[in-house]
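Saturday, quiet lab. Running sequence design on the structure tokens for the scaffold JK sent over.
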């Protein structure tokens, strides 16, 4: 599926792993103060572990579509649950909670002969659009909050998710429709920006009390930030 162009699959995986390590190091530095952000910590850790697996697969020249497919589902699951915990709109909350169970239906196209790479790419486009839209909606709510948005960890998380997935929606769409494959550098740039935003979320949580998306007393149990 991947054709990194100027960079080999091994080089892309190594650079990505280094980038994904940044928020984990920041999280370690802030560990005593970021327990409310444990879903984000889990997400960053999963991304780093996936990078290591992709490096191993690239070293042996093995197909990585299975690893990427599993990561995409876990990525969508964790971020859906993360955003679900911030919603005061019950309908949107339920959609986000059920989304991870719907996404694997894309894989049914494999059973009828469609190319797995094309199916995965289409699924990634859908994932990117949904998560970018939810992040944008969340930021819109923050714009009405009297507290300075930059002091709220959820602002940085939502901003990172919006930039990363909105940008990658165009990357995967270009691959799917135009067969443009030289997008590794853009993907890496988006990953750098997203991880900087996640790191800022950890640092902000360390230095201040996180604002609450939903009115106090209406937070969703089981979906901590």
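Result came back. Writing it out in full:
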């Amino acid at each position: 599926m991947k054709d990194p162009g100027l960079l080999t699959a091994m080089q892309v995986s190594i650079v990505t792993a280094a980038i994904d390590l940044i928020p984990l190091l920041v999280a370690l530095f802030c560990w005593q103060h970021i327990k409310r952000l444990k879903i984000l910590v889990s997400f960053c850790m999963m991304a780093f572990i996936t990078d290591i697996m992709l490096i191993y697969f690239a070293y042996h020249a093995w197909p990585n579509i299975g690893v990427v497919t599993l990561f995409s589902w876990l990525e969508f699951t964790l971020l859906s649950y993360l955003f679900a915990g911030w919603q005061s709109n019950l309908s949107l909350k339920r959609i986000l909670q059920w989304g991870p169970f719907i996404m694997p239906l894309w894989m049914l196209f494999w059973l009828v002969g469609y190319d797995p790479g094309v199916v995965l790419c289409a699924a990634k486009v859908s994932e990117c659009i949904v998560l970018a839209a939810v992040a944008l909606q969340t930021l819109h709510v923050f714009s009405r909050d009297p507290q300075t948005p930059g002091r709220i960890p959820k602002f940085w998380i939502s901003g990172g998710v919006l930039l990363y997935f909105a940008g990658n929606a165009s990357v995967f769409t270009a691959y799917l429709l135009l067969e443009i494959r030289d997008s590794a550098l853009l993907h890496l740039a988006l990953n750098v920006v997203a991880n900087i935003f996640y790191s800022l979320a950890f640092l902000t949580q360390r230095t201040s009390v996180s604002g609450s998306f939903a009115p106090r007393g209406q937070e969703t149990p089981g979906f901590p930030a």
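Notes for JK: The chain has one domain: 9-207. The CA atoms of residues 42 and 124 lie 20 Å apart. Ask whether to fix the surface positions before the next round.
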